Amino acid sequence: MDDKVIIFDTTLRDGEQVPGCQLNTIEKIQVAQALEALGVDVIEAGFPISSPGDFNSVVEISKAISNPIICALTRAVKKDIEVAAEALQYAKRKRIHTGIGTSPMHIQFKIKTTPEEIIKRAADAVKYAKKFVDDVEFYAEDAGRSENEYLARVIEAVIKAGATVVNIPDTTGYCLPEEYGSKIKYLLNNVPNIDKAIISTHCHNDLGMATANTMMGIINGARQVEVTINGIGERAGNTSLEEIVMIIKSHHDLKVRTDINTKLIYSTSRLVSTLMNMPVQANKAIVGRNAFAHSSGIHQDGVLKKRENYEIIDPVEVGIKESSIILTARSGRAALNHRLELLGFKMGKEELDEIYHRFLQMADKKKDIKDEDIRILAGVVFQGEKSMKLDMLQVTCGKSLMPVATVGLKINGELHYATATGNGPIDASFTAVRQLISKTVHLEEFLIQAITKGSDDLGKVHIQVEYDGKLFYGFSANTDIITASVEAFIDALAKIQ
Ligand code: KIV
Ligand code: ZN
Questions:
Q1: Number of domain units in the chain
Q2: pLDDT, tens digit, for every residue of 402-445?
Q3: Closest ligand to Cα 228
Q4: pLDDT tens track for 1-22
Q5: How many whole angstroms separate alpha carbon 18 and alpha carbon 74?
Q6: Residue nearest (by alpha carbon) to ligand 1 atom 6
Q7: Helix (H, G, I), strand (E, B) or coil at 397
Q8: Is residue 112 part of a domain?
């Protein structure tokens, strides 16, 4: 049986420290519930002494979550530990995560004390936390730049004091993978009581090595990893959960496993991105928009022949319906024919040659070739106007008011109106639109993003709807996010027609 690697998620603590990513308690509970469904083992819910909001979130997450351990962060300070214990009072399974800096830099310039005093304060903090909970994790802050021999002495002392997990953070993201792996190995081989605790990794991505370092930690014996969804976190971020989980899943040779339900990775990633207002970079491994998109002709041809030619992960495994073939000037005939078939056109060789020739001319001028363009190329008469357009939208909403929306839609040139209520202005508007179309569509994704941070900013809305097993994408931007949302919805619906 493969060894289990414990997934410790710190999206709500290290991730949430990022400026602009702050969540309110209800949103934090939403994320915590998504993490529970995903199958994480530990949720670091916050740093209770840092603010009343953080304290309250740890209390409410403790009440709302059943399976994962709820963890609260503290410094090696009695008051922090008392407050964390109080915040965790409703948790079914609880952990206090306490610690102190162990690098020469932190000891001399941050804490301004001696190495011996650090060992004493570390052990005292663990002993004190043990009075409140059985499960105490110790972090040696800046362990990445700490001397291994000294670090081993600190770790031995905290395990003796009762630590069940010892966290070796590369706080500044400085270590090379080899160096970080050797550090974990050194501790396993040189801390006499190490068998009484689990070694945890906690890597930052300042030099882009967080995932590599975490993997070297696992390879050298760490059995807990501290990670965040989409790799969000201080500065360049933390190790991303989805990367570690999918590396482990793809490499059976490592002989380790996790309990993550990988099919929920994509939806959890979108939820965190939306709530935290942190767009995911297009080329982000596993969850980026382009992670399963193929644009060069050779790759497209290969993927269409057999997906595994250019993909090591089946997108379905991470909750993405299918790979996408992006039509560009570098696409070949196979990709164009594939798209034509999806749009319902069957072409003979000569017809395809002719369309391909015209397609290349168009692709040279236009970066983004849409299905509408392909239809034109295929000889379908372009209707100039979209088949469905928002003509008017009137919404009433506010505190203590039932949201009501009236929508005027121009469908094939004819105006139709509908009015509906909903649990919010967007829900009411979408319900009114649904009344005017004859199809049953499911909303698969709904992402609102502000372009900058001002309240007068443009809101961008991306929507994906599912109809008859296929996904249709809609987009709009407007200073009024309700209008943008309805326009994006209609943009997607118009594509179905
Ligand atoms: O990066 C770090 O060292 C941390 C600790 C507080 C665990 O986040
Ligand atoms: Zn950190």
A1: 3
A2: 999 999 999 888 899 999 999 999 999 999 999 999 888 999 88
A3: 2
A4: 899 999 999 999 999 988 888 9
A5: 18
A6: 141
A7: coil
A8: yes
